[in-house]
Amino acid sequence: MTTIPFSLTSFSPPPPLFSSVFLTSSPPNPIPEVLTLPSPQSPTKLQSMANGVTLESLRLSLIRQEDTIIFSLIERARFPTNSPTYNESYVPTPTFSCSLVHSVVKETEALQAKAGRYANPEEHPFFPDNLPPSVVPPYNFTEVLHPPAASININKDIWDMYFKKLLQLFAAPGDDGNYASTAASDLVCLQALSRRIHYGKLVAEVKFRESSEEYEPAIRAKDRDALMKLLTFESVEEAVKKRVAKKAMVFGQEVTLNNDDKKEKYKVDPSVVSRLYGDWIMPLTKLVQVEYLLRRLD
Ligand SMILES: O=C(O)C(=O)C[C@]1(C(=O)O)C=C[C@@H](O)C=C1
């Protein structure tokens, strides 16, 4: 059990997935989706692709993931709150012994596990216990992280953040009966948030590789505050908050063929998106980074 000293609770770790390949600096090209790179035939090429991971390339991936997250929120905002989706007594049959959303996420994850989703170390299940094995041929994902990374899964925190704090900020109150679609939209949001937040493992690996002499004393001293200070870039965080608010305005505006576009009315409130990043996504990404770094010398 990984104990995460955060405001929310800890989560059972999944089994180890992969072993480490160390990174070097000065790559030729930014490679955004680092963990989904195919392992090429030639080991030389494999090495150069792994070497392509830099802080800059990871930041480009995080910027692209902003689009996915904002679109997923816009899709969820099509539906009102639809509270029966979250009510454990809504389905009073043995089929679902929990809420509809819990069942939809858990059963979808079981199906996606069989289809190989969690063989990719970018993916983290919300219900990792008793997942069925993959039935698809194994794929050689590029191995980038230090092996203990596999024990870090903060999806319980992400789940609580999403349902207890975030949802009420952007879903309008009401009930239109579309509970299954609502749960499916929640799953898409959760998976996008989880992927983004757990990217902190990669960001931490690159930061460690670039400045190991700065990080090692803090890791050995298990000094969380010092690690947090080392890995924080306030100017980057400010830019992220501004950019996601702007994207929410652009992606979420009403578009008409007349010149009377109501630009002040957005499908998801840009200030909520900015707050989501400032209060939860970036702090959780930094928490993942600290957890990763604490295990980096194990
Ligand atoms: O870009 C980085 O350096 C990151 O670590 C990512 C991130 C983020 O979550 O967006 C987190 C911490 C930094 O303070 C800035 C941004």
Automatic annotation (TrEMBL):
GO terms for molecular function: chorismate mutase activity; protein homodimerization activity. It comes from Quercus rubra. Pathway: Metabolic intermediate biosynthesis; prephenate biosynthesis; prephenate from chorismate: step 1/1. It catalyses: chorismate = prephenate. PANTHER family: CHORISMATE MUTASE. Signal peptide: none annotated. The keyword Transport does not apply. This is Chorismate mutase. Keywords: Amino-acid biosynthesis, Aromatic amino acid biosynthesis, Cytoplasm, Isomerase. One of its GO terms (biological process) is prephenate(2-) biosynthetic process. Its EC number is 5.4.99.5. GO terms for cellular component: cytoplasm. It is found in: Cytoplasm. Residues 179-289 form the Chorismate mutase domain.
